[in-house]
Amino acid sequence: MGFRSVGRLKAIIAGGTGLLFLSCAGLLGGGSGPKNMSAALLFGEGASSLENISNVAVRGRIEFGAHHSGESGSFALYLSGPDSSSFVIEGPLGADAFRMVVIGNMANVKTEEGWIIIGKDERLDFEKYGLENVSPFRIGRVILPQYYTVDVKDSKNAGYLAINIGGEIFSSRMQTPAEYFELIDPETGIEIEYSSRNNIENGFYPSRIEISNPQSHDWKIKIRITKIRKNVSLPARIWQVD
Questions:
Q1: Residue 150, CB half-sphere, CA atoms under 13 Å: how many?
Q2: β-strands 84-90, 220-230: how paired?
Q3: What is the dihedral of CA 119, 239, 87, 105, to 10 degrees?
Q4: What is the spatial distance between Cα 102 and Cα 225, in angstroms, rounded to a whole number?
Q5: What's the alpha-carbon Rg for the chain, to the nearest Å?
Q6: Of the residues 16, 80, 206, 210, which has the fewest C-beta atoms closer than 10 A?
Q7: For all residues of the chain together, what is the average pLDDT?
């Protein structure tokens, strides 16, 4: 779990439409308001504060809506390199309500029955939170996508970009800079909307994230990031599976 370098946005365009779009988005974003986001802004200017860091710790609040509106708590996400992450949801009195540790191609997830191990191509359902078809390997990429190296290409679907975030593929609608930015999981149709841009040193990050399944409309996750710390001493316990 050593040193990594977070590269600036790398636009690898198969055609030419996407390159033109990204160039225009960057230019428009510079003069269209301090709250705006787009692929070019988020993974370019926004990610500049995360370059050349060894790890990052993210804290905030998470709320599960729709049919599971009563579930909420604090969360902590730790990222150390592109293939290592630890995610914890804290319940009442600070007890861990949910834990997940991803190292390489294996994910350890703590359920009510104990720890289970799943591979990179497997997905899980979390009945307690009303979630289905979830990949533990995408948690870090969803909450803090700017931490990872990003490649952007034209998508096969007109009007969309294909965005490779640390080896995981997402899509995004082409848009001029706005106060929100959206990613889509092409395998499940799950949509992730980012908003409430917060400055951090010479960059920025979206502090509010809303995840939903527009196909079923039966669940929604709201995440609010309250603190980001870089290059911290990560406690050994966050990687332990006990």
A1: 28
A2: unpaired
A3: -20
A4: 21
A5: 17
A6: 16
A7: 81
